[in-house]
Amino acid sequence: MQLTKEEFKKRLERKLDNYFEEDVKSASNSDLYAAVSAIVRDGYTPQWRRIRIAETNQKQKQVYYFSIEFLPGTLLKSNLLNLGWLKTVREALADLHLDLDKIAAAEPDMALGNGGLGRLAAAFMDSLASTGYTGNGNGIRYKYGLFKQKFVNGYQKELPNDWLKKEDHWEVRRESKSVLVRFGGKVNMVDDNGWMTPQYEGERVVRAVPYDVAVVGYKDGLTNTLRLWDAEVPPEEELNYPTITDRRRVEDLTSILYPDDSNYEGRLLRLKQEYFFVSAGLQSILNYYTKDLDNKDLTKLPNYVAVHINDTHPAMAIAELMRLLVDEHRVDWDTAWNITQKVMSYTNHTIMAEAMEKWDVNMMSQLLPRIMQIITEIDRRFCVGLKGHVSDDVIERTRIIKNGQVQMAHLAIIGSHSINGVAALHTQLLETKVLKDFYNLYPDRFNNKTNGITLRRWLQIANPELSDLLDETIGKNWRNDSDEMLNFEKYYHDTKVLHKLSDIKLDNKKKLAKFIKERTGIVVDPTAIFDVQVKRLHAYKRQTLKLLHILKLYQDLKAGIDHPKRVVIFGAKAAPSYVFAKQVIKVINETANMINNDPDVNDKLKVIFLEDYDVSLAERIIPAADVSEQISTTTKEASGTSNMKLMANGALTVATMDGANIEIKDAVGEDNIFSFGLNKDQVYKYYAEHSYHPREMYENDAVMKKAVDALIDGTIPNCSAEGQALFNNFLGDNEQFLVLADFEAYLRAQAKIEQTWKQKRLWEQMSLVNIAHSERFDVDKTIERYAEDIWHLKKLEVEKADR
Ligand code: F55
């Protein structure tokens, strides 16, 4: 039964009355949010249960996506959309003079991730359910999500993100599924009836309690489970945790999400977190397999279970599965290794050396003595296996344990049957540069899986007007089958459609302008170019290049050289310990202040750095963007995903030929993207020959010199130290990100953008082409490829949901 407006209104009244003794007139948005989310829960719960039973009965293979981060954002509207209720509920609320958007804004973002990697994991969850595959998420229920960002005097300050303060409406505590995880102590191997068995002494036992979140698939999809683990003192171990400090140490395990997205720190707590959710997840998988599926033959495990390792953070899963198979289930080593390799697969998300996890052998031996023994044995066998077949150098370069450190990427590769990169160029660089030795050893294990995005969220939820225009032109079926979006290209010459497209964009820009006014007090002109760069702040992503462009525009305007009106919008968090990134934030904020208050500039140029960029803010900014800034140093951005979201919303991309930008260009054609900058060979040439001398470039290019000098000549107030730091960085021969090398080409690309902007019709046509071709980055397509090539899944057969 489809939900009707009248039925919804009845349910709403009942919930408000039961929960709060309120009615629709008196209830606050937060009360209304609680009531509507309860109705949504009632809507999917029966189906959630049915699916779990179908899974057990059909014994179809399932994938478990292990990720230390999941970044779903808010869930109310996306669950409504996926249930097929969004329109009905929006209209029913409007009948009651209530606004769904305001009610939905009462939901805190579930920000259990840093950026692209965590967001991708959440998109995969949604997509698995929507495409009909049984996929389970396995992660950590952080008490505090990614920090809230505030600007104080232009500096970034971090505040705790206490997202659970008001309780989460989607999670279900499943205490009966708790498992125990052991840390520390000593391990002795003793002979137990001919089986060498570990005996533990003095270890600490922590209870892992799962909180399950339903992942509601779109339309006739499945309802899957995202399982997030919390750490508690086991009731039977209370005496071993006598003091508050002892207990707090256990709770600390799942207390915070590490806020660094590029630079791992070899911290003990992080290692504990990694082992904690990996061990808990694998134990619960084996419990399901041996108890619910009643399967005693572990050699068949790979027919039922795929475990995916999202970056190296869960790579200990390889050693932990070996431990469970060998120690607990008494499977011999070779058989266990064979099972493990068939079960495990691994995605790499970066080639940046500083992000490659390496754990100190001593630390690991103390915290996880048995795991360290097992990794040592995996390493030993790996070396023995290669001896005589390849050179000793290759063995030294590829082995897991080196210089007293465990190389997690090596463990992940050696223990998996599949290793993938996240865009074509990235995979190619893994194969030919970063993981070349491994590629030579195991060419068949390597494959590419270009990232994707949830078009449902980025079009249907964030941009309903554009979605309606697609309905009116190409019909509604694109909502189920994104291939159909290509038909939008047929309207390339349709003046009416092009006008509608520009009206919708203007409308979205007006909404964002209103929001900017509320948040910052700054008035921006919605008819200006909205030029957007939203992503984590990192030197390689080069928000600095955008800054130099802004300074150049400012200098032109001061000198009376005209440019089309432009509003540059940034959203970016810096890792709290990342000094350079924080300096960039300060300089951008001071530059913004200077420009926004300069009467000479008036409203020709505005620079808006919005605080606290997260999924919810992305949903406001992205539909209003005209220009999408994707300007990383070529070879450094593995894929990028904001590039895809912005494209789907009709922004035109200015891009280096990095990550998935290359595939965007392939999709839309070179006339529909502004590409510029060094190619990968030029970048590697600079590195190989140490031939990058930015000071020469600076001395020989008056325009560049003037823009760069603004950082140190007192032009920008209140940031002389930070300006100097940026200046020194740009001019150093060891500047890795080649900012000045791309400056001139970037200015040319921006000049072309200005030219195109003046040709309104052409701009709209290019925008239309970008929207049409964003179908290529539909995450459902990405998931189909993972399911087929890596996980070997079949779709679950279920009766149509009765919603
Ligand atoms: C988080 C923690 C550590 Cl220790 C290291 C990295 C991260 C992290 O957040 N990485 C991340 O977001 N990587 C990004 O992954 C995206 C999805 O594949 C890519 O699109 C993007 O290029 C990459 O930087």
Description:
This protein has 803 residues and is an alpha/beta fold. It has two domains: 59-74 and 109-145 and 164-449 and 786-791, 3-Layer(aba) Sandwich (Rossmann fold); 456-779, 3-Layer(aba) Sandwich (Rossmann fold), CATH 3.40.50. 48% of the residues lie in helices and 16% in strands. The strands form six sheets. Strands 1, 4, 7, 8, 11, 12, 13, 14, 18 and 19 form a ten-stranded mixed sheet that branches. Strand 11 (204-216) and strand 12 form a beta hairpin. Helix 1 packs across helix 4, helix 2 (29-58) crosses helix 3 (76-83) and helix 12 packs across helix 13 (369-386). The longest helix is centred in the first third of the chain and has 30 residues, at 29-58. The radius of gyration is 27 Å and the shape is globular. The mean pLDDT is 97. The structure holds ligand F55.
